[in-house]
Amino acid sequence: MTTYRLKGVSVLGAAPTDLFITDGLISDKSASAEVIDAAGLVALPGLVDLHTHLREPGREDAETVETGSRAAALGGYTAVCAMANTSPVADSAGVVEQVWRLGREAGMVDVQPIGAVTVGLAGKQLAELGAMATSAANVRIFSDDGFCVADPRLMRRALEYVKAFDGIIAQHAEEPRLTEGAQMHEGEVSTRLGLTGWPAVAEEAIIARDVLLAEHVGSRLHVCHVSTAGSVEVLRQAKARGVRVTAEVTPHHLLLTDELAASYDPVYKVNPPLRTAGDVAALRQALVDGVIDVVATDHAPHAVEDKECEWAYARPGMLGLETAFSIVLSVLGEQWELIADRMSRTPARIAGLDGHGTDLAVGSPANLTLVDPSARRVVDPAELASRSRNTPYSGTTLPGRIVATFLRGEPTVLDGKAVK
Ligand SMILES: NC(=O)N[C@@H](CC(=O)O)C(=O)O
Ligand SMILES: [Zn+2]
Ligand SMILES: [Zn+2]
Q1: What is its biological role (predicted)?
Q2: Of 7, 164, 304, 385, whose CA is between 20 and 30 Å from 54?
Q3: Where is 347: in which H helix or E strand?
Q4: Residues 213-252, buried b or exposed e (16+ Cβ, 10 A)?
């Protein structure tokens, strides 16, 4: 194993120092080391994504575990949680083990499969949660993401079931009866454009119900892609009561608004939809306050034919892994402690990923990323490692650049380029 010396690196914004990586661990010195000039670079614990769609098995034309892993490493990630809405659905030990194995083979980030809550994401019958938990994939997070576990009885049983092994149910909060035919956020812009709206209350009603269920059962609930100011208030109250609930916000919901739908460019079509400037402000404040615990990408690659079509027919979702850090940097500024907490430490703790999200201290596993906060780049979809192109930031100049990423002491990215 090569030993590395990160020369003149700033750990979370502190004064420049030298950091050594030896035998997969952070160390304080080494006899001979390959020197990486890290002057002006900031070291962060490797980023951890609680919400990634890798599309394998089933839609390898949109993304594979390998291409998604490369996109993640280039985005500064060392671990990603892979959502279960693949084809076949990751609702059995066999499928979650397949995804886990593909992640190991790709070897660029730790790929932690999420298991489905219900068989085939159909919302009718609980999947084999226990078998997935005891499989080689060691699943702890379960989600029907893409769909809401709308049936309250099933949701209660799922929460009860995972309590035994401290598992967690990650809910895509969308009351389906309130979003039938929905195309975008319900509000002034949808009225103007004549598009069917997805009202904020469809999200808030499910979160309110689920925090009550989680409180009743005493289980852990995680709320995916929170998008409204009202949801933040429901979460704030639940947390004040001691409910075991955590929540995530996506980079795009921290930055973009429903006004973009006026372009009718389906690259802006996403679930939950882009909301108002008021929602964006509330989400930013909640992330700073800790009412929202983490940033998760909801990286949702889609093939060209599923995305570059009429708005109504386009699939919802946008890429996230290769731009998330830059968006968060532009939103939060150089608050390194806060960024490390919301993008690494807390997501690692929620997912129970040992060895990730740890402080960059001597003896810790060398899962880290080096960022250049002063760099600027123009996003070019053709240059992305993702197999898909549906980034909403095409042509936009973003701050910050991922220079290097290390997974257990081995570089996955050097000089801003993937090592494999
Ligand atoms: N976010 C999206 O708009 N789409 C996701 C599903 C989801 O996260 O709900 C997808 O799988 O494409
Ligand atoms: Zn979702
Ligand atoms: Zn998703």
Answers
A1: Catalyzes the reversible cyclization of carbamoyl aspartate to dihydroorotate.
A2: 164
A3: helix 346-351
A4: bbbebebbbbbbbbbbbbbbbbbeebbeeebbbbbbbbbb
- Beta carbons of 299 and 50 less than 8 angstroms apart: no
Q: What is the per-residue pLDDT for 1?
A: 79
Q: Please, which residues have CB less than 5 A from ligand 2, an ion?
A: 145, 172
The answer to whether the beta carbons of residues 268 and 256 sit under 8 Å apart is: yes
pLDDT 10s digits, 113-143 = 999 999 999 999 999 999 999 999 999 999 9
> What is the best residue among 80, 223, 298 to mutate for testing ligand 1's pocket, by most ligand atoms within 8 Å of CB?
298
Query: Strand order of the sheet with strand 141-142?
Result: 141-142, 168-171, 220-223, 245-249, 294-295
Q: Which residue(s) pair with 110 in the sheet?
A: 79
Q: Which helix (H) or strand (E) holds 27?
A: strand 25-27
If one residue of 56, 61, 85 were mutated to test the ligand 1 pocket, choosing by the most ligand atoms within 8 A of its CB, it would be: 85
- Confidence (pLDDT) at 236: 98
What is the predicted pLDDT for the residue at 29? 82
Residue 337 CA to ligand 1 center (angstroms) comes to: 29
pLDDT score, position 223: 99
The pLDDT assigned to 299 comes to 99
Q: Which residues are catalytic?
A: 298
Q: Which of 50, 70, 137, 142 is nearest to 357 (CA)?
A: 50
- Name, in order, each residue with C-beta under 8 angstroms of 266's C-beta and a sequence gap of 6 or more: 307, 308, 309, 310, 311, 314
Ligand 1 site residues (CB inside 6 A) read 53, 85, 145-146, 172, 270-271, 298, 300, 315-317
CB 334 within 8 A of CB 14: no
Per-residue tokens: 106: 């790709």
Instruction: Identify the burial level of 11 via C-beta atoms within 10 angstroms of its C-beta, where 0-12 means exposed, 13-18 middle and 19 or more buried.
Output: buried
Per the listing, tokens 């039938």 go with 180
Closest CA to 35 of 404, 304, 416: 404
Question: Which parts of the chain register pLDDT below 70?
Answer: none
Collapse the DSSP code of 187 into the 3-class scheme (helix H, G, I; strand E, B; otherwise coil) and give the result.
Answer: coil
* 46-356 homologous superfamily: Metal-dependent hydrolases (3.20.20.140)
Sign of CA dihedral 129, 55, 102, 294: negative
Q: Shortest CA distance to 225 belongs to which of 215, 235, 217?
A: 235
Unique residue bearing structure tokens 């400037």: 277
ipTM over 0.85: yes
